[in-house]
Amino acid sequence: MAEAQSMxxxxxxxxxxxxxxxxxVVTRTSAPPSFDVADFPVPNGREEEWRxxxxxxxxxxxxxxxxxxxxxxxxxxxxxxxxxxxxxxxDPRVGRAGTPADRVTAQAFSSVEKATVISVPRETVLxxxxxxxxxxxxxxxxxxxxxxxxxxxxxxxxxxxxGDTVRAAxxxxxxxxxxxxxxxxxxxxxxxxxxxxxxxxxxGRDASxxxxxxxxxxxxxxxxxxxxxxGPGGEAELYGVYFTDEGQHQEHRLLVDHNAxxxxxxxxxxxxxxxxxxxxxxxxxxxxxxxxxxxxxxELNRNLVLTDGAQVHSVPxxxxxxxxxxxxxxxxxxxxxxxxxxxxLMARGIPADEARRLVVRGFFAELVQQIGVPDVEERLIAKxxxxxxxxxx
Length: 393
What we know:
Mean pLDDT: 89
Shape: globular
Number of strands: 16
Structural class: alpha/beta
Distance between the termini: 44 Å
Pfam families: SUFBD_core (PF01458)
Number of helices: 5
Protein name: Fe-S cluster assembly protein SufD
Family: Belongs to the iron-sulfur cluster assembly SufBD family.
Number of domains: 2
Helix content: 10-25%
Region (Disordered): 1-42
Strand content: 35-45%
Low-confidence stretches: 1-27
Domain SUF system FeS cluster assembly SufBD core: 136-363
Largest sheet: 16 strands, mixed
């Protein structure tokens, strides 16, 4: 956070504190967002937003040397009420939920000529999930997708990423007033894939959004959800589950920008790591602006280290410009198996390996249940079982 500095003409402690708060907000939200990649210098790894990311493994996404020479097979399964359009980047819906916040996502925007807009009409309640599957077929690919959810609609959306590619993309969610959106994004890439994506969510007045990010595969995966509010009364729940294996780098960077009054957010991400070179990063930023009175927010990150050598960086941040809020807090914890839990189970005749599996399942159980899509939950549990069989035996 930026240090407080005196300002010329500031003749009270209150003015100085206000100036320091304003400066800190700019620092936390990083460089001003821009659609133009030229507005972002090539990162060198010393910048706050890149200091944990292995730039040499991004395959040129960060420095402009990656060219769109690959392909992604896209399949959409949706009820009849859902419509799909291919539009120019000048369409007013493109960029409305947010702007690229780093060089890679700006590169993604600059590298596409069209965007895909998937729309759900107002007051439509879908009985089946909308499923968008992207399967990488090699090479480098870029993309921009907008989900336009009409007022008072209710939608469950599943984004499924598989295959092998080097992918940079922007995904926008326009959630209309009073609408309810659940979005599940699954990163189940091949071990050599690279995926950098920014999810921009604009929550309408009295609307609610539940986001669940599930990350297993990929060589380097960096997911950046960013939430803002279009009016008062909005709610956002951001959940995440990740299992970082040997050689993988998985990075989740979140920003919840409370820019409207009487809004709520809750963030809970849990991860497990195994393997000497497993690396995970979780950055949770929450900004409560001066006009966001009545805000209620909390963020949590917990990590379970299963083997020696695995490393995790967990950084929760709160920046508050007004004291007129309901509540704000954060927590972060990283540790190994708790001996008391293992002892309790083993004392009741459960073998040590099975006891460890039960502890890990219990660690993730609460967040897995948040998904609410049975086949996705079953797939996630199966992946957890496979990972645990490898690490525990």
